[in-house]
Specification:
alpha/beta, eight-stranded parallel β-barrel, Lyase, Ornithine Decarboxylase, Chain A, domain 1, TIM Barrel, 440 residues, binds pyridoxal-5'-phosphate
Length: 440
């Protein structure tokens, strides 16, 4: 079995997380249900901060909100002393509605709208991570209208392209994000930023990718960014004080996965920055990292109720559950793979190979192809592991399925942090034109 964080199999043979029996949670909150091990999230936050503290003098750990963001999550982050990345007006609004301190918010995205920038400026977000010259001009003019100055990090393409098991360094990369180093785009944008009156250049940002299992590509990106800081110091005579190295540390989805520990990842980055600062005779910049998946991914599970079981003789057994691509798009979107168990039969040996199907009207809506489970019956509870990141945040109402509830569990208590959507929620914004109304 795939046990992480506070998971145990209790005396009833049920899976328990944060001291809460999943069979009881299913009864109380219904299914599908997203369950987050709060202590594990807090533990990960503390691991990042502790490793940073031990290895580098001036740092900030920023949570990438797109992985999973709700108002309770914002509270947790604030309590743990993490900053927050947002990529849209909606994420920003969520944080503001949780009274999250705006000065600790980093605003990302390749196409921030006028309305989004105005909201961010008026509420005083800490940094805009600017992605293009066009955006610099837009932020400058909107800040000018408001009589404010906007703090800017320029998003750079360091040209490091990692895969899960390898990475390459390329000259020019074809990506919608960031400003190229080799094609002069980064330097041009930097000059633009220095020239515009209402912008304050604070530093640089880069993000090389996600679900990365090696520490070398991060260190390589850090070293490339330090070279750029040096180039800027020499050619423009300015000191760059902040370097944000993005997120991307991988997590364990499958038993065989072994991502590097947080401490190793942090050390790799910190040592490289210190070494380069020393080589180039530069002051140490403040460094930021932006973990998303590695803070919440392994802390979450998805709980489903088994409905119809269909045998295709000689082919496979399809076990259909009451959720699917509407609450976890990753298998359909990326062919993502997961481990699973039966939460109500967690003490029973795996006896059969089945495939777990979602309930959406798409052949591609398969949560797991080929997984070993104890004999499955209608009414059993399938739990899928490591679903805390990029699942609820990607959920949709496809097939008019209401989005699931989310609970935080800790020390035997469960707290509902997102209510299950109702059918009423689904039609809340629907309107019927007057001419289509039914007469009496
Ligand atoms: C997605 C993203 C992150 C977080 O990535 P993870 O792989 O979830 O750690 C951080 N920074 C930026 C700019 C991102 O786009």
């Amino acid at each position: 079995m795939f046990l992480t964080g506070s998971m145990v199999v209790n005396q009833k043979g049920h899976l328990e997380i944060g001291g809460c029996d999943l069979v009881d949670l299913a009864k109380e909150y219904g299914t599908p249900l997203n369950i987050m091990d709060e202590s594990m999230i807090r533990g990960r936050c503390r691991s990042y901060l502790k490793s940073m503290e031990a290895n580098y003098p001036d740092f900030e750990v920023i949570y990438a909100g797109k992985a999973f963001l709700t108002r309770a999550m914002c509270r947790l982050l604030e309590e743990e002393g993490l900053s927050l990345d947002v990529v849209s007006g909606g994420e920003l609004y969520t944080a503001l509605k949780a009274d999250y301190p705006p000065e600790k918010i980093y605003f990302h995205g390749n196409n921030k709208t006028t309305e989004e920038i105005n909201l961010a400026l008026s509420r005083g977000v800490g940094r805009f991570v600017a992605d293009s010259q066009g955006e610099l001009e837009l932020i400058d003019s909107l800040a000018g209208e408001m009589g404010k100055r906007a703090n800017i990090l320029l998003r750079i393409k360091p040209g490091v392209v990692p895969d899960t098991h390898q990475y390459i360094q390329t000259g020019q990369i074809d990506s919608k994000f960031g400003l190229g180093l080799t094609d002069g785009q980064a330097m041009e944008a930097l000059d633009k930023c220095l020239e515009l009156d209402n912008l304050e250049l604070k530093g640089f940002h880069c993000h090389i990718g996600s679900q990365i299992f090696q520490t070398e590509p991060f260190a390589l990106a850090a070293s490339i960014m330090m070279s750029f800081i040096r180039e800027v110091a020499l050619s423009r005579n300015i000191k760059i004080g902040e370097l944000n190295l993005g997120g991307g540390l991988g997590i364990r989805y499958l038993k065989k996965d072994s991502p590097p520990p947080i401490d190793e990842y942090v050390k790799g980055i910190a040592h490289m920055i210190k070494k380069k600062a020393d080589d180039y005779n530069l002051p140490l910049p403040r460094i930021m990292i932006e973990p998303g998946r590695s803070l919440v991914g392994e802390a979450g599970v998805s709980l489903y109720r088994v409905g119809i079981i269909k045998d295709v003789p000689g082919v496979r057994r399809y076990v259909s559950v009451d959720g699917g691509m509407s609450d976890n798009l990753r298998p359909a979107l990326y062919k993502a793979k997961y481990e699973a168990a039966l939460a109500n039969k967690a003490d029973q040996p795996s006896g059969e190979k089945v495939s777990v199907a979602g309930k959406a009207c798409e052949s591609g809506d398969m949560l797991i192809w080929d997984v070993q489970l104890p004999p499955v019956e209608r009414g059993d509870l399938v739990v899928i592991f490591s679903t805390g990141a990029y699942t609820y945040s990607m959920a949709s109402n496809y097939n008019r399925l209401p989005r699931p509830a989310v609970v935080f569990v800790r020390e035997g208590n469960s707290d509902l942090v997102v209510r299950r959507e109702s059918y009423e929620d689904l039609v809340r914004n629907d309107l019927i034109p007057k001419r289509m109304e039914k007469g009496d």
